Amino acid sequence: MRIFRVQLEVFADFWFYGLLFEHTDKGKLPLVISQHGGLGTPELCSSFFDSGNYNDMSMRIFAKGVNVFAPQLLLWAEGEFGEDPHRAALDNELRRLGGSIAALEIHCLMRSLDWLEKWEKFGGSFGMIGLSYGGFYALYTAALDKRIRAALDCSFFQDGTRCFGSDFAWPGAARQFGDAEAGALVCPRALRIEVGNADELDCVFGAQNEFVRLERYYQSARDALSFAVFDGGHEFCPADDGIRWVLERL
């Protein structure tokens, strides 16, 4: 294995950071983006130390024989992993310009794919997995970028009754465009939703209700959609079923 610290210049003097994990003993392989959640970092979700509720997600999928890119979003824990990223203030400034922090970070993720697909060793086949905030980015990045063939959204997917943070929300979303509609934009590509039966942040019933809405969009591609409830809380799925499901579809 080789590990690279990567910095990509997305705009002039605007850099996007991540960890790239490469198999050195194999040829061309797919690549999966492993996206951390709130208060997280690439190092945390990639088991540089105790990975907590990430349950070693980056290393588990790497061990299945794919390369992995773990990007850093403006979500780290202030004081523990760096200075305050001022996420809310930046989101407000971007909204004044007609954008948002979510739009900026999804753009950065898509530009990362631009760079990664130039490497023949990554095979041009991409997937994405994520926990919590990372599940949001897995869902919405896959909705916008058709290069992502399969995505796993863990512990984020919900119906419109959940009170979102401002960085998740936009005017009229609860009435016009929810997680089910984002999932519809992934179709007919593969999408798996997982949630814990004891998740203290994302209600399993809200996820189930929204999945019922999503199913109607996948009627002609039913094998490309999957939903699972696992025994656990707000964490990345402890079992490998979802990981295997994604890899089988790359």
From TrEMBL:
<dbReference type="InterPro" id="IPR029058">
    <property type="entry name" value="AB_hydrolase_fold"/>
</dbReference>
<protein>
    <recommendedName>
        <fullName>Dienelactone hydrolase domain-containing protein</fullName>
    </recommendedName>
</protein>
